[in-house]
Write a structure and sequence with these properties.
The radius of gyration is 32 Å and the shape is rod-shaped. Residues 38-42 and 44-48 have low confidence and may be disordered. Strands 3-2-1-4-5 form a five-stranded mixed β-sheet, with helices on one face. It has a domain at 61-132: Nucleotidyltransferase, domain 5, CATH 3.30.420. Helix 2 packs across helix 3 (112-125). The N and C termini lie far apart (116 Å). With 147 residues, the chain is of the alpha/beta class. It has three helices and five strands, in the order H-E-E-E-H-E-H-E.
Length: 147
């Protein structure tokens, strides 16, 4: 009598049921723990900008913030980058005139905190007419000069 080896006829198979169960549990976990996009909830009305340049006030106080976060008030540099040092430099340059317009110019690579610090110092000193200088976008049309 011939005895056959049954192991040679067995075909290996992969059981997919446990794999599908694990993937389903992972999908449920990610769906439950994912934070949903909250920007769609906020209704914002963004400000619009006019293409016409504003009249430049020759008496405007110029606050310049370079890419490194250093401050220059007109032609004077603030020695440190903290609010108190910046306020002291603004007081030395501007004096007591808080009605004077301020033109804040910041490099595009300036850290956001440096601009906020400058605005905070100006606000604490009581300046109300603060304008932020921008460059026109490339390809933007400007209004023709009026005669």
């Amino acid at each position: 009598m011939r005895i056959r080896d049954r192991r040679a006829e067995d075909v290996p198979e992969i059981n997919l049921v446990p794999l599908i169960d694990v993937i389903l549990v992972l999908i449920i976990f990610f769906v439950v723990t994912t934070t949903f996009d909250t920007r769609s909830v906020l209704k914002l009305e963004l400000p619009s900008a006019d293409a016409r340049p504003a009249d430049n006030d020759p008496q405007a106080l110029s606050v310049l913030v370079n890419a490194d976060g250093r401050y220059f008030i007109d032609d004077r540099e603030a020695l440190r980058t903290d609010v108190d040092s910046l306020k002291a430099t603004i007081i030395e340059v501007a004096g007591d005139d808080r009605e004077r317009a301020v033109l804040l110019r910041a490099d595009a690579r300036t850290p956001h905190q440096a601009v906020v610090t400058a605005m905070d110092a100006l606000g604490q000193l009581g300046f109300k007419r603060v304008a932020i200088a921008t460059a026109p976008a490339s390809g933007a049309r400007t209004a023709p000069p009026t005669q």
